[in-house]
Amino acid sequence: MGHYDVKREVTDKYSLRGRVFHKIREDILNGRYKVREELREVTIGEEMGVSRTPVREAFRQLELEGLIQIVPNKGAYVTGITVKDVGDIYMIRSLLEGLCARWATEHISREQMEEMEENIFLSEFHASKGHTEQMAELDNRFHEIMYEGCNSKILEHALKDYHQYVLRVRRKTLSTQTRSSASNAEHRKIMEAIKAGDGDLAEQLANRHMLNAYENIVENGYMEHYEEG
Amino acid sequence: MGHYDVKREVTDKYSLRGRVFHKIREDILNGRYKVREELREVTIGEEMGVSRTPVREAFRQLELEGLIQIVPNKGAYVTGITVKDVGDIYMIRSLLEGLCARWATEHISREQMEEMEENIFLSEFHASKGHTEQMAELDNRFHEIMYEGCNSKILEHALKDYHQYVLRVRRKTLSTQTRSSASNAEHRKIMEAIKAGDGDLAEQLANRHMLNAYENIVENGYMEHYEEG
DNA sequence: TCCCGCATAATTGTATACAATTATACGAGA
DNA sequence: TCTCGTATAATTGTATACAATTATGCGGGA
Fold it and tell me: Does domain B83-219 match CATH 3.40.50.2300?
């Protein structure tokens, strides 16, 4: 997990290596590359019209992110997210989102607070209309606002990382109306606790929010196509 | 992070990139390269008698480990840890080490348990002799055993990351006799809780262990030469 | 048929050449 | 003297060539 440095994350996209990195990452998260699939340097290079050099460098980064595994002199293989991994991540997130909510209570800016309120307002509107796509987008954004509002680059980066990592599962989860509405209600309560300056409550609610999301995933069998763990 | 992992860690050291990676890493942690110092590809390559290619790949890995920062088209700079970063990491670690201890209680293997007991035995021996170097090494190892024993690749990865990240501070901390002894005592209690199968207690103790370590750092001003946050 | 060994191909590891970008130095003009 | 612009050097980014390693296929022998 790379720490901090927002600047780089942007600039990176304009180098070939950065583009290769982001593309492979997306392709893995979107399921284009299957688990255990071997990624060849030349093949990917040809696909993107670049040489092996930037591809190799991207591989090294992807390995440290845990998305692929490089066996020396052999190749790069897509690592799978197991059912257990998803569970672990939700447990970890439960703790960290709680901490994040607590810190956000202390450090969130006026603008961020306003965006959060607006986010919930909009979510409730789209919920009443059944706009699942927008709701999913707003749900993601709610968490990002909180990450940014906690005033900790380290925690923000860690949470964004995990958030990304379980994106495939989340997309499915939020497509169901009932969970999405429940999620909205939980967001509102978290927001209100942050606004009221009640750090303990905010932490507890954010904590519970993650556990609820995970329970929903398990109950509905959204992980059925993941690896056994 | 599957079955190939161990092989790679070993083989890695016999590739040029692996050697470069480990050497730079050591040099940064040992303070040979100062914060904000620029690392040049050719210079390091010449020092080690290799070309830029393996050096560049090592840089990409070091960046994700958070030890250096690469500014596109400019260079690689040794990153500084801010005082706030260290604090944030210890708060995050407090939560995650707690979770790790709880999970270790449920999943630690017989061999790992034995190594943990041996670790504490040895630590106490070296403490009585005043061998600070060995004590620091054993302290690090204690945590790694717990990380490995929690049976979660995700959590293990995250904790090893943070562990490594604050290593520079830790080396100073553990060089003081008093904290080191206190740390030993806390390790023993954690180990006993794990062995007794008391997950709640193990979590609580591991939690407290991190907070104590952090308090010690703050009280003794070990972060005075770090960046302002 | 099965298994071994060797030649060949495919793939990764490293070095080098060249392109693009950024830093530096120096002189002209005010 | 100071500032700006340009030429030059230094450094990183990418492509390509070659070396080392690993995979593949085929023939011979039991």
Answer: no
